[in-house]
Amino acid sequence: MDEAQLRELTAANPELGGLRDQALAAIAAAGEQAAIEDVRVRFLGRKSRLTEILRSISALPAEQRPVVGRLGNLVRVELGALVEAREAELASASLRSALAHERIDVTLPGEPFLGGHEHLISRTIREVEDIFIGLGYKVAEGPEVETEYYNFTALNTPADHPARSLHDTFFVDAASAGARAGRGADDGLLLRTHTSPVQVRAMEKQPPPVYVVCPGKAYRRDLDATHTPMFHQVEGLAVDEGITLADLKGTLYHFARAFFGTDREIRLRPHFFPFTEPSVEVDVSCGLCGGKGCRSCKYSGWLEILGAGMVDPSLYGFVGYDADKVQGFAFGMGVERMAMLKHHIPDARAFVDNDKRFLEQF
Ligand code: PHE
């Protein structure tokens, strides 16, 4: 707005000229964004005096109307532009000062981030799985809460077998314990005592041949230096035509050397399991003394690693396989035990103590 216009305006409406002066001063004085926002509301807002005057032009004497209308509007546009310009100026000033004050020194060392790593038990499970995957096995998993049928009955473990007793098995509820006493002895629910039921489920799901390993948690009422109530197993099953005990031995021989080292030997000792016939326990030669005998192997030269055997043909009846056509072997190992033997860990409870000093070693 130039001098002439200003004079014309002040002559027509002195208040408008005064308002403009006040607004110009307030804009110049606004030192921060909130202040300029106040100025906008005070001088240009819906309830401002300027808006009021412009809205009531029709009430003015006829000769004032065109001048006040034209120049009043010019004042409004002029002030709006000035407010906006001042606002932009203040915004960029505040950004500049934030950048200056909140400068981050990217060369300072950061907070150390302590990366975790796989637990030794998980790693051991993977190592075992990998060896069998290399032999063509598939990995199968199943529920940890099992029925008595899959955990015992279909594995040829009769209703009165002591392993079913409360002393060894965690039953899930009172009704389950009752079932064990003779009422519907197959339906009781329990925490599986081994991962063998997964093998039964695997056979139910597919016709032979079957080559599976079953990793997972198992539960027994045990607690001492070498047993925890929850532990891990990897069990394996091979069912095909023409499978013999020699296949079992060859497979476990390969496994033991892949897992512990190629300087190891294995031996099979006769044993008993309800679900295999014949059954064996498998030992690996002691890695510390090379089989000569030392404290670690109790001077026997051998360390027991797992149970195994030829699948008892009576099991095939439970899953609809033809016992005259197929043969198979099965084996089951405790993962904690395998890790303890491989890494010379004296106490299985260390796996669940969660002491980082222990866990970080592996
Ligand atoms: N299921 C047996 C156990 O948990 C291990 C095993 C599996 C033995 C397969 C023989 C054959 O003790």
Description of the structure:
This protein is an alpha+beta fold and 362 residues long. The chain has 2 domains: 3-101; 120-144 and 192-359, 2-Layer Sandwich (BirA Bifunctional Protein, domain 2), CATH 3.30.930.10. The protein is 43% helix and 18% strand. The protein contains 14 helices and 9 strands. The strands form 2 sheets. Strands 1-4-5-9-8-7-6 form a 7-stranded mixed sheet, sandwiched between helices. The chain has a two-stranded antiparallel ribbon with strand order 2-3. Helix 1 (3-12) crosses helix 5 (65-101) and helix 2 (14-29) runs parallel beside helix 5 (65-101). The protein is elongated, with a radius of gyration of 43 Å. The relative contact order is 0.09. The mean pLDDT is 91. Bound molecules: phenylalanine (PHE).
Please render the helix and strand layout as text.
Elements: H1 3-12, H2 14-29, H3 33-44, H4 49-55, H5 65-101, H6 120-133, E1 138-139, E2 145-147, H7 148-151, H8 174-180, E3 189-191, H9 196-205, E4 210-219, E5 230-240, H10 245-260, E6 266-273, E7 276-285, E8 302-311, H11 316-319, E9 327-334, H12 335-343, H13 350-353, H14 356-359
Parallel strand pairs: 1-4
Antiparallel strand pairs: 2-3, 4-5, 5-9, 6-7, 7-8, 8-9
Helix pairs in contact: 1-2, 1-5, 2-5, 3-5, 4-5, 6-12
The chain binds phenylalanine.
The site of phenylalanine has 11 residues, from strand 8 and strand 9.
